[in-house]
Amino acid sequence: MPRRRQPTARQERLGIELRKLRETAGLKAREAAALVGSDSAQISQMESGIAGVSEERVRSLAAHYSCTDEELIEALVAMTTDRTRGWWEKYRGLLPAPFLDLAELEHHATYRLDVEFLHVPGLFQTEDYARAVFSHRVPRLPDNELELRVRHRMERKAVVAESAVPFKAVIHEAALRIRVGDRAAARAQLTRILELSETDHVTVRVIPFDLDSFAGATNAMMYVGGAVPKLDTAVRDAPHGVGFIDSAPQLGTFRTLFHMVEAVSLEPIRSRDFIHQLAKEL
């Protein structure tokens, strides 16, 4: 298969999982290559996502690695045979690659867990809210680039609005009270969260300011469920860019952190009442 100049995060993840299987089997790249009639350079390229890999090759490698996790193998096969060109592809070359990678990750999600302390979760944001967030970037974005980012975020929202993928969001009161736009925009944003919270697949919980002994305000996260638990991904959004986390121990930590935050937040019904009251105060 031809080499890729810039593999997507999903293509890189497939390679990462193949490397994990090889390392678990205790094999070096040259030893794995010998088993499938290849060379170590090609194995390295597959494991970095630079080179594609066929369904036959995935199954062959899994067999040589003595992998008996059939669900994982089928999930990896699905990743290599998927030829989906999603809506995000029209932004390729116009927006940084992580924007597209995040949209693709969400497209394949089986569930989503978000924790936010200073901003409303991206998939809940109204157009005015998103525009205000992107407008605050330093250095300032040219108008055309700003509008591209807003439009991309609005299209990402279809994952929540048009699918039944379970979505749990825990939002701190600070994020609900901070006005990134004007009063009208803040009221519209709270109304949007209330609308989403009333759908069957979305659960919204609030952490109020007056919660005693809460020290977890640094644990904002996006956690995206994969086809199997081993393909889950945690996403950290930092000033220097988006990071995709696939390490099993780290994923376990993020799941634990989410459940800790979820456990101390208000119940969904009380959270809706809380948000409704905030909206009335505006």
What report would you give on this structure?
By secondary structure, this protein is of the alpha/beta class. It contains 13 helices and six strands. It has helices spanning 9-24, 29-35, 40-48, 55-64, 70-81, 97-107, 127-135, 143-156, 158-161, 173-177, 183-197, 248-264, 268-281; strands at residues 112-116, 167-172, 202-207, 221-224, 233-238, 241-245. The chain has a six-stranded mixed sheet, with helices on both faces. α7 crosses α8 (143-156). It is globular.
Q: Helix-strand pattern, N to C?
A: HHHHHHEHHHEHHEEEEHH
Number of continuous helical runs? 13
What is the CA-atom radius of gyration, in angstroms? 21 Å
Basic shape: globular
Q: How are the strands of the largest sheet arranged?
A: 3-2-1-4-5-6
Q: Give the low-confidence spans.
A: none
What is the total tally of β strands?
6
Q: Could you describe the largest sheet, including whether it forms a barrel? A: 6 strands, mixed
Q: In whole angstroms, how far apart are the ends?
A: 58 Å
Mean pLDDT: 94
Helical content class: 40-55%
Indicate the proportion of strand residues.
5-15%
Q: Which structural class should the secondary elements be placed in? A: alpha/beta
